[in-house]
Amino acid sequence: MNPLTRLNTLINEVVDLQHAASLLEWDEQVYMPPGGASTHGDMVATIRKIAHEKFTSDAVGRALEDARRNGTSDGDESDNEKLVAVTAHEYDKALRVPADFVAEQAQAVSAAQHAWAAARRQSDFGAFQPHLDQVVALKRRYVGFFPPGVHPYDVLLDDFEPSMTTAEVHELFGVLRPRQVALIRELTARPQVDDGFLHQSYAEAGMTEFARNVVTAIGFDWTRGRQDRSVHPFATGIGPNDVRITTRFVEREPLSLLFGLIHETGHALYEQGIAPAFARSLLGNAASLGVHESQSRLWENLVGRSRPFWDFFYPALQQQFPSQLGDVSLDHFYRGINKVNPTLIRVESDEATYNLHIMLRVEMEIGLLDGTIRVEDLPELWRSRMQEYLGVVPATDATGVLQDIHWSIGAFGYFATYTLGNVISAQLWASYLGAHPDRDDQIRRGDFAPLLDWLRTNIHQHGRKYKAQEIVQRVTGSRIDPQPYLEYLERKYRPIYGIDRAG
């Protein structure tokens, strides 16, 4: 058996175990009875530990060294060369982390998820605080397994956005913040858009049916995926042939279900489009979470909140909800779904204010990691930062510090990828228009196949073969650049609010 075949055989088993753990974690949030938390926690911890031990085994080390030494003789850009490089990077990282720690962390975040869900229902941060204290302590220990770098947060960021640094994130935020704050002030100074029709009672069954029809139209493959309900919407890829999405229904916020489902479908389309040859390998993942998020934000916002999209879909939505929308014109509806209004909830925020929610969270994560912020101070700090950044203050923990699942599952370093996704999505959107000048006409007639095919060819199929900066450069001719996103926001929102382009 040649070294590469031996390496692939070993890694296949590791990926199978990782997928099994992901399936259990999906079940915890969707179907598990409340009393099953500890049992699931034990199972996930055991599987994660076994996967880690298999991955960091001497057998993998020897096969990897043989593959590195012998090479693949088919070029630095080949699938095999990239597979060895990505596997080596992950192996070197995993080797630093003890298997017992992996199991301990899996158990801790399993318990924390359920504590968070209960605390969120009761709006009681105090009930969740001990679990978050433990998760933060585990993250600090995790960082300690790696050599000291420029910033300890770089270690956590690399888990989601390989090769991205904290300094680069700060630089990106520094470009976005002043332009977005200025735009928000400009828009909110204008007469506000009337979106009262969106805050009526809509039947959940009817909205779910409509939303499922939408995600079918944009290309979700139901033979390789399913949709369920959860406390917090998410997507889980258990290999390219089993991709699961969830959503939730919020009374008198009916379109949160629709846009949430489109968002998760964007993630799912990426997972379903990864080359079959990469299944059961470390190339069978996204290039990064920022690139992954670019797909969900592109479909949710640049497509799903666009005028051409609703030129096609609005008659069907009106027919589904005649009493709520029968007298609402398409122009009124389009302006309503794009209303700029600082809100408490990240997942329900508009495009113009969304990144400020992310900046707040990333700053808090960095503070928790370096010890300048204490867990017990989070609720009050959250309230003061929301007032400073967005001019709104949560009255409860549920609408404040407890609204997101990420910290309970230990996903520190994840939030920055949402802003990266926004930025990348605008770059891809502009590149697609360059290749398809009839882009808006395609969408206006409900033809989403060309866009999905373009994304499959340029992004999805490559899996993790390229890093984020590499794939953005290949597709757009530029590194990750915030300017197209800022221009997109200004070009879209000024006309909605009747502001001349010149300001």
Give a short synopsis of this structure:
The chain is mainly α. The chain is built from 21 helices and three strands.
Describe the structure.
The protein has 2 domains: 145 residues, no CATH class; 331 residues, Orthogonal Bundle (Neurolysin, domain 3). It has 503 residues and is mostly helical. Helix 10 packs across helix 11 and helix 11 packs across helix 17. The protein starts with a helix and ends in a 7-residue tail after the last helix. The mean pLDDT is 95. The relative contact order is 0.12. A hairpin with a 5-residue loop joins strand 2 and strand 3. It has 21 helices and 3 strands. The longest helix has 28 residues.
Set out the fold topology.
Blueprint: H1 3-30, H2 37-55, H3 58-70, H4 79-95, H5 99-122, H6 125-144, H7 153-160, H8 166-188, H9 204-218, E1 225-229, E2 235-237, E3 243-247, H10 255-273, H11 289-303, H12 307-320, H13 322-325, H14 330-337, H15 351-370, H16 378-390, H17 416-435, H18 439-444, H19 449-458, H20 468-476, H21 483-496
Parallel strand pairs: 1-3
Antiparallel strand pairs: 2-3
Helix pairs in contact: 1-2, 1-3, 2-5, 3-4, 5-6, 8-15, 8-21, 9-10, 9-12, 10-11, 11-17, 15-16, 15-17, 17-21
